[in-house]
Amino acid sequence: MSTTSRFSEETRAVILARAGYCCELCGRSSRIWSGWSVHHRRPARMGGDRRPETRGAANGVLLCGSGVDGCHGWIESHPAEARGKGLILRRDEIPAEVVVELKRGAVLLDDRGGFELAA
Ligand SMILES: [Zn+2]
Q1: I need a labelling partner for 38 at 20 to 30 A (CA). Which of 73, 96, 109, 118 fits?
Q2: Per residue in 27-83, pLDDT tens?
Q3: Ligand 1 centroid to 39 CA: how many Å?
Q4: Which UniProt keywords are given for this protein, alphabetically ordered (predicted)?
Q5: How far is CA 77 from the centre of its chain?
């Protein structure tokens, strides 16, 4: 399954810059690992959910690994825990409105590449 095709190149660049080119869960630098990926918190499934709130930077988290290894693999193999951390969202949840627990803390991401620490 391709998980990166739905973000525009511009949005992917914004996510990478926000992440400082490091995995947003474990902090590993993307310069020392290959196979990084942008995880969709609200995934595109069953023919594609193309609503605008899923295309912004708030819906993407830069992770090491792919769907089977690294932090991306952890999310795929621990969906309940990932959901509890805001890393996997339901279809009716707006990414910019759901706190996500990253290495930098519990934050609300916005669609332009910014974030604020959640109270
Ligand atoms: Zn990682």
Answers
A1: 118
A2: 998 776 677 889 999 976 644 456 778 889 999 999 999 878 899 999 999 999 999
A3: 11
A4: Endonuclease, Hydrolase, Nuclease
A5: 15
Task: Give 14 Cα–ligand 1 centroid separation in angstroms.
Answer: 18
Number of other residues whose CB lies within 10 A of the CB of residue 19: 24
Residues whose beta carbons lie less than 5 angstroms from ion ligand 1: 23, 25-26, 64, 71
What value does the mean pLDDT take over residues 102-109? 98
pLDDT of residue 99: 98
**Residue 36: closest CA among 12, 7, 70, 2:** 70
| Distances in whole angstroms, Cα of residue 60 to Cα of each of 34, 51, 89, 118 | 18, 14, 11, 18
